[in-house]
Specification:
This protein has 191 residues and is mainly α. The protein contains seven helices and four strands; from the N terminus they run E-E-H-E-H-H-H-E-H-H-H. It has helices at 17-23, 40-54, 64-77, 101-104, 122-137, 172-181, 183-188; strands at residues 6-7, 10-11, 34-37, 115-118. The strands form two sheets. The protein has a two-stranded antiparallel ribbon with strand order 1-2. Strands 3-4 form a two-stranded parallel sheet. Helix 3 (64-77) runs parallel beside helix 6.
Length: 191
């Protein structure tokens, strides 16, 4: 879930709704709340390649397994939303490793958003989001300005394009690391 703007202690992007609403409680009912989730295995491969683009001098020496072991330590500590420690760890921004269920589900396991799309179905799910948003907004437009909103294929920028398909990156050991890190995501998000 990404929200742009500024909160009391810094930028609002990547914060869960609970933190956003602490500062802007009146906003909770005013918005259509949606998020996109990604297969945790694909997400970690993408994050690994993104890290390599930021650490060019490590290319070839920073293995996927090493990356996952460091990520697992980070995920096991939690504390993703502590403003004092929010931004940096030696290999990037720790918020990028936050389990996705923390944005989607409440403590009882109920979905707290209006819509959850999947990265794997991005265009189809984004089309559904746009249809919902624009159909709700249509009542606010004067009759002579109502018009169809066209949705075309969205170009997904993939910084790790050209990388191997994510299943090829895993062996039994690295797969188990991701299963430990994102057990709840795999279960609740049905991956």
């Amino acid at each position: 879930t990404v929200m742009f703007g500024t909160l009391k202690h810094g930028p609002a992007q990547h914060y869960p709704f609970e933190i956003f609403y602490q500062y802007r409680p009146e906003e909770e009912k005013n918005y259509f709340k949606f998020s996109f989730v990604r297969n945790p295995y694909d997400r970690m491969v993408s994050q690994y390649y993104w890290q390599l683009t930021r650490m060019r001098n490590w290319k070839g020496t920073y293995s996927f397994k090493t990356f996952l072991l460091e990520a697992e330590k980070l995920v096991s500590k939690g504390d993703f939303f502590n403003n004092d420690k929010f931004m940096k760890v030696p290999y990037g921004n720790k918020i990028h490793f936050c389990p996705q269920h923390m944005y989607i589900f409440d403590e009882e396991g109920r979905v707290k958003l209006d819509f959850v799309g999947r990265f794997e179905n991005f265009n189809q799910d984004l089309s559904q989001v746009c249809s919902t948003i624009f159909s709700k907004e249509a009542d606010n437009f004067p009759a002579d300005n109502n018009r169809e909103v066209e949705f075309s294929e969205t170009q997904i920028h993939n910084a790790s394009a050209g990388r191997p398909p994510y299943p090829e990156m895993y062996d039994s050991t690295t797969k188990k690391i991701v299963e430990r890190m994102y057990e709840k995501d795999l279960d609740l998000l049905k991956y």
